[in-house]
Structure formats: structure tokens, C-alpha cells
Amino acid sequence: MNMPGGQDAVTSGADLERAVAALAQTLGLQVRTQVRVARRLWGAERRIDLVLRHPDSDRSLGIECKYQGTGGSAEEKIPATIQDIAAWPIPGIVVFDGAGFSANMRAYLHSTGKAVAYEDLRGWLTLFFGLPDASVGAGPPAPVTLGDADGAKGGGEPTAD
Fold first, then answer.
1. pLDDT, tens digit, 9 for 90 and up, residues 47-62
2. Does domain 2-130 have CATH number 3.40.1350.10?
3. Distance between CA atoms of 146 and 72, rounded to whole angstroms?
4. Other beta carbons within 10 Å of 152
5. Where exactly does CATH 3.40.1350.10 map onto the chain?
6. Of 25, 54, 126, 139, which sits with the fewest C-beta atoms within 10 Å of its C-beta?
């Protein structure tokens, strides 16, 4: 099965890191791996799995990759990872994949605003870095008209002209 960026299905944390890096490169982003960013509170070295950088804007994003193929206790570490991201000197997210994440953990991850499922990553990175949306085509997006106060044109919903 192919995943975003034309990669094969992810089956481990290392696979997920490679797949995210490959996807970022197909979008024209620069990728650094295992980037050291000082120390944690208890003195352990803090590293970010991947740091993506847009070469024109210099905008950067740190990514922690979390894979869980089967149910287990590994997901218990995720809230600490979300907290750790707050201490980074750049914006960051967790990219997660695998059938082993419980429905509750998936809901928690989405609720933080700091986690993105791997299958949604291409669109998320496109928005974050202001990249052209390759899924729409080469032209500009269709103009959108919002309805007036009386609810014309679909009750205020965006419509393409």
C-alpha cells in the first residue's frame, strides 16, 4: 500500500521517520535528522527527530515521529512528548501512524493541535509552509464568494463562482 509521497506502508518508527523525510523532500523542504536542542530538565540530551526548513522563507518545523503497530504502553509517553515540544526553540508537531494507537489517544492527539496523522501530513505541511497545493492543479484556486447577511448563496457557505 502506498502512503503520502509515494512511500510504502510504514511498519516501524524508523520507517515513519524516513517516510516523513521523503515526503518533505518531495515538497521541496530541507530535512535535518536527530537535531540536538539542549537538554531536558533532568539533564538528558534533547533531540528532535526531524527539522524541516523551507529554503526560501527560512521557516522551520520540528517533528517527532511516533509509530505504534500494536496496542501497548508506548502511547503513554505521548503526552510528555507534546509537553516537550513546548520547550523547543521552533514550532513543532508529533506525526503519528500505526494501528496500535487507541481511539482515545488519537482523539487526544488531534485535540492538542500539535499532532498530525501521517496520512494527513502532506496537506498540513502545504498549509504550514505556504506551498502550492499540487492536488488542485497548476492554476490559481477558484474564487470563493461568501453569502450575504440574508443567507444568499447557500446560507453563507463558501461557493465557487
1. 999 999 999 999 999 9
2. yes
3. 47
4. 12
5. 2-130
6. 139
